[in-house]
Specification:
69% of the residues lie in helices and 2% in strands. The protein is an all-alpha fold. It has a domain of 69 residues. Strand 1 and strand 2 form a beta hairpin. The radius of gyration is 31 Å and the shape is flat.
Length: 574
């Protein structure tokens, strides 16, 4: 009997006395708190913690459990007040409390009905690269707001956990918003979810699938392949579904299967102009010979895209008539065909550079001139004149919105036809800014003498956030002198300029001087800029900023606390 009693003591030592010594009642209370948290009853856990702290007011484990209970309850302010009153030890010994508080802020923000707050909570959690972020992403992917779902799906490839893959499988069937569906398909391809292979194949085969969605699905399927057998390729080529025949073209190009590329030649007579276009593109890239008569027929095709692509292939084979045809399209009445012809002319190799330079000087369309200038720079030909064209167009067309348009890996700049999206404020302006920053970056990379001047002039009529982006371009594309130029702005008289320069240096170089300027300027800028500052601190990940970030939890704005919480976790994890 004594032996049995001794075994019970060893096995259930947390509820019975051990060898005459009373069990520590503090440990019993602690286990009761965590038991309530385990069954997701934070209210009872909070009550138990309050009761236990009356008997053991100096117990550090009980204070930690109390803070966790308050966090689970959603009372982040009370949790922070408790930590602020009872914190003890140095920063490293309290790391668990700091992390608990920060995740508590993010969890409450994730449940907020305000889009900005919930969106920043999801982004902030995802940036930590912690497994705790997975419930945030799953919750957002099930949300009613399209922008929230879009942002969550974009982070999924960085994690790839099973719950997220299950949500992708659901969304590819149920999602109705087109730009979210495209992102879901891209994520499936990036994660190579083979269980959804046939679903993507159905999308390609379905005649009701939009062209853009079909293209993304084809690229996703290509990502899933490690290779393709001759038999499978033949099945795709002979398929009665145009989407599968397009997939065959993409696979031949992706895996550079030159020995099988000739099998695509019969598809040049296909009834689908999009398929003919893809086949010509692939054969041109792989330098697969096409019969002169067939190539001549294609140059006269009823589809302008097919005709121009065939002229491009002819030019690659050294035929003067290919260049001549592209120059003829360069003066077509339709601006769209002019721009495509200019882009293809720039891809004809050295043979096309002389006519491209002449056309750049003489053409009336500014976008034709711009794209020909980009082609000359790509070939390191007449770079000074080409940079001059880009610089002047950036100055003259400030009010016009621009965008990149892509045709089979032949991107070109054109006037924007991007429409507003309710879920993304100022979407056309964002696309325009990205396009212009790409061009500014190019000028910096080419060491064009007026590049920094162009960037600084751009700063004069853009908002702070875009100013920061432009300065980032200046640093990425410029040399050490450009970096020093920005660092000198840390001493500028204007507080906004100092903060902007510090923001960029913090994002790139983790400059201690930048952190000091950011902390100093934080209290003198508006709330939007404060959020940028907190984001930069998180990217730097310096433990010295933790006390500053903890002080931000005293602010009354939930959005500010959410961004500070994400920055705090990133600092703790560095």
């Amino acid at each position: 009997m004594k032996l049995l009693f001794f075994n019970l003591i060893l096995h259930f030592g947390f509820v019975v006395p051990l060898l005459g010594d009373l069990i520590d009642e503090e440990q019993v209370a602690l286990r009761r708190i965590y038991a309530h948290l385990l069954i997701h009853d934070p209210f009872s856990a909070t009550a138990e913690a309050v009761k236990a702290l009356k008997d053991y007011p100096l117990s550090f484990p009980l204070h930690l459990a109390y803070i966790q209970a308050l966090v689970e309850k959603g009372d982040e302010c009370a949790a922070f007040q408790e930590w602020n009153q009872k914190k003890e030890g140095d920063l490293k010994s309290n790391r668990r409390i700091l992390e608990t508080l920060a995740w508590g802020v993010l969890k409450k923000g994730n449940r907020s009905p305000q889009l900005n707050v919930s969106l920043n909570a999801v982004i902030g959690a995802a940036l930590t690269r912690d497994v705790k972020a997975i419930p945030f992403l799953v919750h957002a992917m099930r949300g009613t707001n399209a922008l929230l779902r879009l942002v969550a799906v974009r982070f999924v490839p960085s994690y790839g956990d099973a719950p997220l893959q299950e949500e992708l499988a659901r969304m590819v069937v149920e999602e109705k918003v087109w730009f979210v569906r495209l992102e879901v398909i891209r994520a499936i391809g990036a994660l190579r979810i083979f269980s959804l292979y046939h679903k993507l194949k159905e999308l390609i085969e379905n005649s009701r699938t939009s062209g853009e969605e079909k293209e993304v699905a084809i690229l996703a399927l290509v990502q899933m392949h490690d290779g393709i057998s001759e038999a499978d390729l033949n099945l795709l080529i002979r398929s009665n579904r145009v989407g599968l025949r397009q997939l065959a073209c993409q696979l031949v190009a992706h895996f550079n299967i030159r020995k099988s590329a000739h099998r695509l030649i019969p598809l040049l007579k296909d009834s689908s102009p999009e398929l003919r276009l893809q086949v010509i593109h692939v054969l041109g890239l792989l330098r697969i010979p096409i019969g002169n008569l067939l190539l001549k027929q294609l140059r006269e095709d009823s589809s302008p895209k097919v005709a121009m692509m065939a002229s491009w292939v002819a030019a690659l084979r050294g035929k003067d008539e290919g260049i001549a045809e592209l120059l003829r399209w360069l003066h077509h009445d339709n601006e769209r065909w002019q721009l495509l012809a200019a882009t293809l002319l720039g891809k004809c190799g050295s043979k096309g550079m002389t006519p491209a330079f002449q056309a750049m000087k003489e053409h009336d369309n500014p976008f034709v001139k711009l794209n020909l200038a980009l082609a000359l720079i790509a070939h390191r030909t007449c770079m000074e004149q080409a940079c001059e064209v880009i610089y002047h167009l950036l100055q003259q067309k400030r009010e016009q919105l621009w965008m990149w348009e892509d045709h089979f890996c032949f991107p070109h700049v054109t006037s924007s036809d991007v429409t507003h999206i309710d879920q993304i404020p100022n979407y056309p302006q964002l696309i325009d800014q990205k396009t212009r920053l790409d061009l500014l970056n190019l000028l910096c990379m080419m060491r064009y003498p007026k590049a920094q001047e162009a960037v600084k002039e751009y700063l004069q009529y853009r908002t702070w956030g875009i100013t920061g982006a432009a300065m980032l371009v200046l640093l990425e594309g410029g040399d050490q002198e450009a970096v020093e130029c920005v660092r000198k702005l840390l001493q500028d008289e204007a507080p906004d300029v100092r903060v902007q320069a510090a923001f960029i240096l913090a994002m790139l170089g983790k400059d201690p001087q930048a952190i000091e300027v950011l902390q100093e300027g934080y209290f003198h800028v508006n709330r939007d800029i404060k959020l940028h500052i907190l984001e930069a601190m998180g990217q730097v990940g310096d433990l010295e900023t933790v006390p500053f970030l903890m002080d931000i939890f005293n602010e009354p704005f939930q959005l500010t606390r959410v961004v500070a919480a994400s920055a705090l976790i990133q600092c703790l994890y560095h």
